[in-house]
Design a protein that fits this description.
alpha/beta, 5 helices
């Protein structure tokens, strides 16, 4: 069964990037890739990706210099702008509601997971549509005071797993669905 996961790192005060969309705070922290809730184990179960335009632009400008697009899976980027394409990457720029492309995303995932890469507004939209199943967050020992929020809307979660990985407190939550 396909699960949709918002897998993300956050500061202790709930920001995924600073006010300049920088992640410098994140890369100063130690995390063991093979430790609890590590990236390699997570990405091995992912069949499709969703991200907002700010996340796409950050990855495009930072990872192209490091060898190109880092994902093999198809990726839907939600934007209202005309963004540069990345040669050889399966990136699909879309401007509608997530529900409009959802059947295509599920088909591409082929029963594997769907990763909401970022940001908080997109994850909140998925949650509002009942399409977000879990939130996995690595909480860094950093306080920014302002920046891009982890989520932009209220959401109830149920803690299902908690672990320490290097400098991070890692938590896995199921999204609590309102009663039908």
């Amino acid at each position: 069964m396909t699960r949709t996961t918002y897998y993300v790192a956050s500061t202790l005060d709930g920001f995924i990037a600073d006010e300049h969309d920088s992640l410098d705070w994140l890369f100063r922290q130690y995390i063991d890739d093979d430790g609890p809730m590590g990236y390699p184990a997570f990405i091995s179960g992912i069949g499709a990706l969703l991200m907002g335009s700010t996340t796409y632009e950050w990855i495009r400008t930072h990872d192209e210099g490091a060898g190109g697009w880092p994902y093999e899976q198809p990726c839907w980027v939600f934007t209202h702008r005309d963004l540069p394409r990345i040669e050889g990457a399966d990136v699909r720029l879309v401007s509608g509601a997530v529900t409009e492309v959802w059947p295509e995303v599920l088909a591409a995932a082929g029963g594997s997971g769907v990763w909401v890469v970022g940001g908080g507004a997109l994850a909140s939209q998925l949650a509002a549509e009942g399409l977000l199943d879990e939130v996995v967050v690595a909480i860094a020992p950093v306080v920014l005071g302002s920046g891009r929020p982890l989520m932009t809307e209220a959401l109830d979660l149920r803690l299902v797993d908690l672990a320490r990985n290097g400098d991070f407190a890692c938590a896995r939550y199921d999204v609590v669905r309102p009663p039908a």
